Amino acid sequence: MEFARKAYFFTLDLLQTVLLAASIFLVIYIFLFRPFQVSGESMYPTFKNQQYILTNLIALRFETLHRGDVIVFHAPPDKEKDFIKRVIGLPGDRVRCCDDRGRLQINGVSLDEPYLYPGDVASLDRFDVMVPPGRLWVMGDHRSRSSDSRAHLGDPGGGTVPIDKVIGRAVAIVWPPSRLRRLGIPDSFERLNTNGRALGDRTGRAAASAAVAAPDRSP
Questions:
Q1: Which of 42, 174, 178, 213 is deepest in the core (most CB within 10 A)?
Q2: What mean pLDDT, rounded, does the chain reach?
Q3: Which domain range does residue 26 map to?
Q4: pTM listed for this prediction
Q5: Is 165 a catalytic residue?
Q6: For residue 219, is it within any domain?
Q7: Catalytic residue, candidates 6, 39, 42, 178
């Protein structure tokens, strides 16, 4: 009887521990962080095909998105498809291609992009867009292989992605172990994210913060 009683309490403790661990995992998975597998080459060389990244799901609730962030988002016409791209333009930004050296310009400030796939240019397509409220202009790092905002200029929103379709911000590469590293904003975006002329009260964080608080609900 003593053995049976000890076995019973051991099993009960084990079940409670497993249930607690499962509950913590579910809370983290649903509300905090989630792994995503990269599919395709549109973000090469930053991400390779089949790599896993960790995405911060609470970024939009407590933080402001910045130019240079990498985000995972639902495809506007199809919620079953997720995409990963880099944020180039925030709400209110004017994004154009290109300056006389072939670089993107954001609010008149040229952007150097050392993260691009070797041999790629900023864009072969010419465009000049104003990012609407509540939306983002996004592009892949492998420009010649990326179907991004440029490919949807004729769609509602002019190729921009609604902020309310964003799932989260990529914060780390977690698999394979040889590629394990934390993700940050490239230094080339520093001028755009801190310079008064580029950021501005009307085109930068103020506009982005307002858009996150009250995102555009149009498709």
A1: 42
A2: 78
A3: 1-33
A4: 0.75
A5: no
A6: no
A7: 42
